[in-house]
């Protein structure tokens, strides 16, 4: 569904969505989700006055040279606060990614 005045979405809400290209795989989420941990790499990446520089791909997605297999569980953790792993995903790999992104609650 497209955001617009007819369904009550404001420009502010449309700007909330963020595209991430992690290792060639596209992820879409919101700034609110990425900023669950204010000091994380992901939160800093999408700030207006960002201190972190990142290139974007041809579709405007932030380019992150990491393994998308391990990024998915990290993103889902930020979405709902619980780490859920498929049986074919290494917990160690996910925790390594959490450390890279500085998701402090996940690496405790």
Task: Tell me what you see in this structure.
The chain is of the alpha+beta class and 108 residues long. The chain has helices at residues 11-14, 31-34, 41-45, 68-80, 91-101, 104-107; strands spanning 17-22, 25-30, 62-64. The protein has six helices and three strands; from the N terminus they run H-E-E-H-H-E-H-H-H. Helix 4 (68-80) crosses helix 5. It is globular, with a radius of gyration of 14 Å. The model is unreliable at 1-7 (pLDDT under 50).
Helices and strands, with pairings:
Layout: H1 11-14, E1 17-22, E2 25-30, H2 31-34, H3 41-45, E3 62-64, H4 68-80, H5 91-101, H6 104-107
Parallel strand pairs: 1-3
Antiparallel strand pairs: 1-2
Helix pairs in contact: 4-5
Number of helices: 6
Portion in strands: 5-15%
- Give average pLDDT, whole number: 86
The level of helicity is 25-40%
Spatial strand sequence of the major β-sheet: 2-1-3
Measured between the Cα atoms of the first and last residue, the distance is 38 Å
Profile the largest sheet: 3 strands, mixed
Residue windows where pLDDT falls under 50 for at least 5 positions: 1-7
Oligomer: single chain
Helix-strand pattern:
HEEHHEHHH
């Amino acid at each position: 569904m497209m955001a617009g005045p007819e369904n009550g979405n404001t420009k502010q809400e449309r700007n909330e969505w963020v595209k991430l290209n992690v290792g060639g795989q596209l992820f879409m989420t919101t700034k609110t989700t990425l900023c669950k941990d204010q000091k994380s790499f992901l939160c800093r990446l999408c700030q207006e006055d960002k201190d972190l520089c990142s290139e974007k791909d041809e579709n405007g997605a932030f380019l992150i040279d990491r393994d998308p297999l391990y990024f998915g569980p990290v993103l889902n953790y930020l979405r709902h606060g619980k780490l859920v792993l498929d049986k074919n995903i290494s917990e160690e790999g996910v925790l390594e990614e959490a450390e890279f992104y500085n998701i402090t609650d996940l690496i405790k």
